[in-house]
From TrEMBL:
It comes from the Bacteria. Signal peptide: none annotated. Residues 67-120 form the Rv2175c C-terminal domain. GO terms for molecular function: DNA binding. This is Rv2175c C-terminal domain-containing protein.
Amino acid sequence: MTEPRDVNAGETPGPAEWLTLPDVAERLDLGISKVHQMIRDRALLAVRRDGIMRVPAELVANSTVLKHLPGVLTLLHDAGYNDQEALEWLYTEDDTLPGSPAAALAGPRATEVKRRAQAAGF
């Protein structure tokens, strides 16, 4: 896995809150190595922000990763998106959802987000 570049505030649309990888491990009740594995497997999205790998907090709901997130990340990766581009796609506002795809993943529009991620490759 290539080392992600640092994402600076204001540079890209993004979440309001970020979690460090140890915070994610604690929230998911997993070891830090398992969190790293989830990132490598594209089951979870992390980007470097202020020199530290961080995960958008809303992608980790309660004590689990959002159900459809791994599928969406796989579809975006298969379409040629890198982690930074996937973050931008997830957090770009879409009036037809409404909101961003990341916000829609937590609700009844998750299947629509997956359909759109699949279409992104064509």
